[in-house]
Amino acid sequence: MNIYVLLKKTFDTEEKIAVSGGKIEDDGAEFIINPYDEYAVEEAINQRDAHGGEVTVVTIGDEDSEKQLRTALAMGADKAVLINTEDDLEDGDQFTTAKILEAYFEDKEADLILAGNVAIDEASGQVGPRLAEYLGIPYVTTITDLKIDGENATIEKDVEGDVEIIETSLPLLVTCQQGLNEPRYPSLPGIMKAKKKPLEELEIDDLDLEEEDVEPKTKTIEIFLPPEKEAGKVLEGEVSDQVKELVSLLKNEKKVL
Amino acid sequence: MNFELSKEQQMIKKMVKEFADEVIQPRAIEIDTEAKFPVDIFKQMGELGLLGIPFPEEYGGSGGDTISYALAVEEIGRVCGSTGLSYAAAVSLGASPIYYFGTEEQKQKYLTPLAEGKALGSFGLTEPNAGSDAGGTKTTAVIDGDDYVINGEKCFITNASFAKTVIVTAVTGKNDKGKNIISAIIVPTDTEGVKITSNYDKMGVRGSDTAEIFLENVRVPRENLLGSEEKGFKQFLYTLDGGRISIAALGLGIAQGSLNKALSYAKERTQFGKLISSFQAIQFKLADMSMEIELARNIIHKAAWLKDNEKPFSKEAAYAKLYATETAFRAANQAIQIHGGYGYMREYEVERYLRDAKLLEIGEGTSEIQRLVIARQLGC
């Protein structure tokens, strides 16, 4: 089985993030594999181990993205591809990413493509579904279980806490939700072997794309941090008075009723 | 000159950090209070290849270097001194001597299970009357036919109760000048006559196993001699030099853990209407801790680099061990001070860091012995 994983490098949101001049400061920021993409890598490795084949991890990024790719290789992926857009593209959005990936997958025979449900930075959740549309293959988002039998796949999909069971067929794209698996730590031998595994670097030129083909469809107007969380309010007195006060606050102050 | 870690080293550090934070940290208080060796954690560490970092793949190792190993010890020590000590001792003292001085057969037979993390090894050097004065070893190994017959007593031996093999140092004869010849012999712990007890009630590193070993007419084949008979003493000096880098890394981890805890506490704790991190008295403590930690890290990485590049590293290993462990003690002590009364409570963990750090100024060569080693290197 030809298995591909779409992987994104993101900020470690557990670290402090600074915004200045409408941009996120990336000096000194910690970068990690998008946590939802880790589920995708783990699932890809498990599916390969069960059904045979090869796992290729694909990312669009810059030179530093090699680190995240090597980590995926250390976890057990077989090959990695870095589509380096550092010199060619100023900006990009989900359209850009999906277009580049479409071009990459044009001559590939992918049986299964796995992506994260969302990336924790911009959380659009769009790249996977867009790519599947371009490629004309079925897709299922937020999956929590995947069983493959020949050409058929049985999937459990998280629907706001409920489970939907879906049957579909390969080739297929899925996006991975928490609960699908427990991503492994890359082992020491895995880390040492990762440096010997193939890592191909491409530019959009190699995919026969021009800058205009992938120009973003959206514009970022402003980036700002959420307001600091304010202390909560504790209502006091008789319960019936508290209820009255609460209703009045929700009506008049917060205007949610 | 390049101060950057390689990609593999960065990945190893990150992986061990995550493992330490997610798996070991939640258990650290329990490991200390119950003084129970965390067998299950060691099993997982073995599966991740941590116990085989500095050994080649052909012996079940991961083919990493000393720097990677030091990074791993630091990250584990940062959350749990007990686990860090048992880890450092298993690799540096239990397994390394077999790798450096063992025959091909000994490596296959004894090193492989240790490097794969399927068994633990231990190093029996210290005796009730031979601590810093290792030359005062009383345990004897006498040749009898094809065997050595070993008699004696070892104390303060890390991991011995859980070890499959112990490398025992013993007097095997006298040289021309009438001085004792001390050799190292691999003793499987299930050999008849080996008795291992673990009754110590320790101040710190309480979850790391420390044992006494009694050897009574213990017979092992002569082929279990590790390296050459005459060079036994030189061999364990080399072993201890390497071990010092790992104990230094453990001290560094404890110091870093102390700073992390003290800094985040200082940024949350308000007194006199201000965060205590805005007071110079606290700032200066944090600045000193941070500076000493970075200096310790630099000398540890330098000593490890020298070892990896097969250059002499005795002096640097002694610098590193001495400086990093004394840094650990100072940093833990100041971390308690910054926490005030809370720091004295187990829940805040910094008091444990101090108790754990104290051991590092004693074990694997006291601070005083490190100063002697350095002075000798200066030609005194």
UniProtKB/TrEMBL annotation, chain A:
Recorded GO MF terms: electron transfer activity
Family classification: Belongs to the ETF beta-subunit/FixA family.
Record bears the keyword Electron transport: yes
CDD domains: ETF_beta (cd01714)
GO cellular component: a single term: cytosol
Subunit structure: Heterodimer of an alpha and a beta subunit.
Phylogenetic placement of the source organism: Bacteria, Bacillati, Bacillota, Bacilli, Bacillales
Domain of life of the organism encoding this protein: Bacteria
Tagged with keyword Transport: yes
Necessary cofactors: AMP
Purpose: The electron transfer flavoprotein serves as a specific electron acceptor for other dehydrogenases. It transfers the electrons to the main respiratory chain via ETF-ubiquinone oxidoreductase (ETF dehydrogenase).
Residue stretches making up the Electron transfer flavoprotein alpha/beta-subunit N-terminal domain: 21-211
Keywords: Electron transport, Transport
Organism listed in the record: Virgibacillus indicus
Protein name per Swiss-Prot or TrEMBL: Electron transfer flavoprotein subunit beta
UniProt xrefs under Pfam families: ETF
One GO term (biological process): carboxylic acid catabolic process
UniProtKB/TrEMBL annotation, chain B:
Taxonomic superkingdom: Bacteria
Pfam families xrefs: Acyl-CoA_dh_1, Acyl-CoA_dh_M, Acyl-CoA_dh_N
Reactions the enzyme catalyzes: a 2,3-saturated acyl-CoA + A = a 2,3-dehydroacyl-CoA + AH2
Keywords of the record: FAD, Flavoprotein, Oxidoreductase
Residues covered by the Acyl-CoA dehydrogenase/oxidase N-terminal domain: 6-118
Record domain Acyl-CoA dehydrogenase/oxidase C-terminal: where: 231-378
GO molecular function: acyl-CoA dehydrogenase activity; flavin adenine dinucleotide binding
Database matches in SUPFAM superfamilies: Acyl-CoA dehydrogenase C-terminal domain-like, Acyl-CoA dehydrogenase NM domain-like
Cofactor: FAD
Domain Acyl-CoA oxidase/dehydrogenase middle: from-to ranges: 122-218
Family to which this protein belongs: Belongs to the acyl-CoA dehydrogenase family.
Protein name (record): Acyl-CoA dehydrogenase
Higher taxonomy: Bacteria, Bacillati, Bacillota, Bacilli, Bacillales
